[in-house]
Amino acid sequence: AALACTADVRKGELSCAPASPAGGPRLNVIGGQDLNVKLTSTNVAWDVATEVLSADVTVQNLLGSAMGGAGAPTRVFFHVAPVAVSGVGDVSVRNADGEDTFTAGSQPYFAYTQTLQPGETSAPRRWEWSVPASVGQFVFTLLVDAPLSGASSASGLAFRSISAHGENVCGVTLDAQGWCWGHTGFGQIGSGAAIIPQGAAYRPVRVLEGAWDTISTGEYGACGLKDGAAWCWGTDLDGGLGSGFVRSGCNGTSPSNAGCEPVPVKVVGAWSLSQLNGGPQVDFTQISAGGNLLRAFGPPYARFTCGVDAEGRAYCWGSNSAGTLGTGQLTPSAIPAPTRVAGDRRYRFVDAGYRHACALDDAGKAYCWGQGIAGQLGYGPPPGYDAVSPTPTEVRGGHTFRQLAAGASHTCGVTTEGEVWCWGSHGHGQLGTDDPVGTCNGFACSVDPVRVESGLEFVEVTTGTFHSCARTTEGEVWCWGREWQVGRGQSVPGSASCTSNPQVHCVYTPVKVQSSERFVQVTASRETTCAIARASRKVYCWGTDSYTTGQGLGTSVYVPTRIVEPA
Fold this sequence. Notes:
0% of the residues lie in helices and 46% in strands.
């Protein structure tokens, strides 16, 4: 995962935040601030006479495995070179240890040669930038590259990252192997096994074609990255595989299931009028699979995927049933190859929801597109049933975000100050507030971002269908929304009837999940949430979707419970 960093020259401040929730564009990339590593800066100072900004920077290993060493050091690459955002002038790295080809040619890096055991912090390295006096602030993006000396151990699977969506969860272990569990009727496990209509895998199953950098789970399919190339599996009904073709018949119930692909298929190059089946391969640094099943949110089985390349360009492919691809076109269509999102804006991260997507630009501003029936796009008047936007538009409020998550009908983001703001549907308390909000089509919602009531400092947020969860700087997970999804048991004190369904109880402000574990990542599917424990790198899940709780059989669990691993 890329780390988006901002340096304030005059204030002597340097901060980095995750540019994506998990994963990375190369095998050994383990970046992700507060996820797999933590970079800390101290003694930040600017010398007026020499026009040099400098800082002591350490790297902490948050993995369950040793990383780096003298023969194969941990290297912190400048994935995107420093660029001035306040003032005018050229900023450059002054004392890098070297340059190498990583995600592009001649990228400077700083090397940390000591072997870092789990939890260990490196000795500080002094970083320097040449900064003219005319520059007030500049930004850059880092990727952390390190070999790992441990992996999935004899005690079971140790996960580096996980991703949940719909009725499936996938993850990548420390040894870069992919694992998925949940519904199997569309080939979305990626194991190559014969497709069984309405089938299920209630514990992790190995994905073919490893080793994986990251895997993102979508609606009845998933996509992953290997060396910058995207691979997808599952249904191809909407061109969701990105194979250059659209195949019908994959509906999860037919014995033939033509168009279901249980083996990872490489995504073709970018779509253009002159190359209808794809041009040159897109070198992705981050990918997010989305889509929806529920007819209440549009046509069933609408699958789409978006990603960001090394130059910050955003691409999407699959179903464009509600302008979800962000190409500027509203005509429902299936685009089976990566297509540029409209506009020349550069992004560092994109998240695909159920029928909308949102992205962060280099300055941390949020832009959304697709269906906005419940206000989940974060702009415009109170929406009607036909509210859609086929082009990215900035979310209201002027907030600067470090990370965001697009759910079914709501969106949340974590600001650089550690606050969580949400917008969209509030019918089950998804926005995290007791205060009254507006209405969209007769249901509680807010087009404007609403601050989640907590008083906590968060580093990550995730959104499901009827709930949201966020992770604090200390690794605690707090949730709000439908009572059964917040990880506090079947009955939560203080819950109240949901405004959109009085027969169900909801929790309108964050509650801490019932667990003593500290977590390094959290991800939500439709009705389940899963998280990786910091110490053991084991996955714990809770919720009411029996496909995704990972308990070895179809069952609901209401507090974080460790998944059952392969026999």
